[in-house]
Write a structure and sequence with these properties.
Blueprint: E1 16-18, E2 28-34, H1 44-58, E3 66-70, H2 74-85, E4 89-95, H3 100-108, E5 112-116, H4 121-136, E6 139-140, H5 147-155, H6 157-164, E7 171-175, H7 180-192, E8 197-203, E9 231-235, H8 237-251, H9 257-270, E10 276-282
Parallel strand pairs: 2-10, 3-4, 3-6, 4-5, 7-8, 7-10, 8-9
Antiparallel strand pairs: 1-2
Helix pairs in contact: 1-2, 1-5, 2-3, 5-7, 6-7, 8-9
Length: about 300
């Protein structure tokens, strides 16, 4: 467990700020939850801490043990910084076309990074993580099937949104990757008020957006329940990129492309509403993408 002054206690309680320039419907307020303010720089700090902490509590892994996980980036960075603080080693498996910033950050925290061929994508990375578990005896967290993933958001993200909107949130919008964020927040908010609408951002066919995925049927996260999402809005790669750039220039919010995708969908939603209070997740910070073409 973390001591009172541990950096781990800085996970969560991220700012909720109002978008003041990009919303055209004056009867709708859009609030952005700035998850880049977590110590590991993304929303994934919440799930990573809960998965490791609960695994330790159950005795699934003991001090000095090795964890393995497939990641496209942010979960890996979160696990890389949290694991050693709790006495564990971390092996991360990710596609070789991941941004240089992400790979270097994971290694800076002391994690071993295994890069897999770009053409097999994150789904191939997941297969190799299972192989390492079987061959090396590592403990696989498996964020795509681990209920402690979404429970991290049920415990923290959902309650923060409820509290910080003075219980007035009407819509929640999130990118869907592992679907942990949208699943946990949906469960919490729906328990508080069933009329709150949960909206997922999903890439349009042919679009590649880091952090947002349309999984092949056999790879859909096991804990995902489509009934927890009231509406899915598709976003193209170009739309997500353009909105990410607008967020930086017009709102001073420097974020990654999945955040731009979520906000694009939030604005499309806002156009259909007579009134409302929308909260959208800003998953991470833009400095993770400076070596990509995102801000060119």
């Amino acid at each position: 467990m973390a001591s009172v002054n541990s950096i781990l206690n800085q996970i969560g309680n991220t700012p909720l700020v109002e978008a003041s320039h990009i919303v055209s419907n004056k009867n709708v307020k859009l609030f952005l939850k700035l998850e880049g303010d977590n110590p590991g720089g993304s929303v994934k700090d919440r799930a990573a801490f809960n998965m490791i902490n609960e695994a330790i509590k159950r005795g699934d892994v003991k001090k000095g043990g090795t964890l393995v996980e497939a990641t496209s980036g942010n979960t890996g960075i979160a696990l890389a910084f949290i694991a050693p603080l709790l006495g564990l080693k971390m092996v991360l498996v990710m596609p070789e076309n991941s941004t240089e910033e992400r790979v270097k950050t994971m290694r800076a925290y002391g994690a071993e990074v295994v890069l897999t061929p770009a053409d097999i994508g994150i789904e191939g990375s997941r297969d190799i993580a299972f192989q390492l578990r079987d061959e090396k005896g590592y403990v696989l967290l498996n964020q795509f099937e681990n209920d402690d993933n979404w429970k991290g958001h049920y415990k923290t993200t959902g309650p923060e949104i409820w509290k910080d909107t003075q219980q007035n949130v009407t819509h929640f919008v999130s990118a869907m990757g592992t679907t942990g964020t949208i699943t946990g927040v949906s469960k919490f908010l729906k328990e508080k008020k069933s009329s709150i609408q949960i909206v997922g951002a999903q890439p349009a066919d042919g679009s590649s957006i880091p952090g947002i995925r349309k999984w092949s049927p056999e790879y859909v996260p096991k804990f995902f329940d489509k009934n927890r999402v009231d509406q899915v809005i598709e976003v193209t790669e170009q739309e997500a990129k353009a909105m990410t750039q607008r967020l930086a220039k017009e709102e001073g919010v420097f974020a990654g492309m999945s955040s731009g995708g979520a906000v694009h969908c939030a604005l499309k939603l806002a156009e259909t509403l007579k009134e409302g209070i929308i909260v959208a997740i800003i998953c991470d910070r833009g400095d993770r993408y400076l070596s990509s073409s995102l801000f060119e």
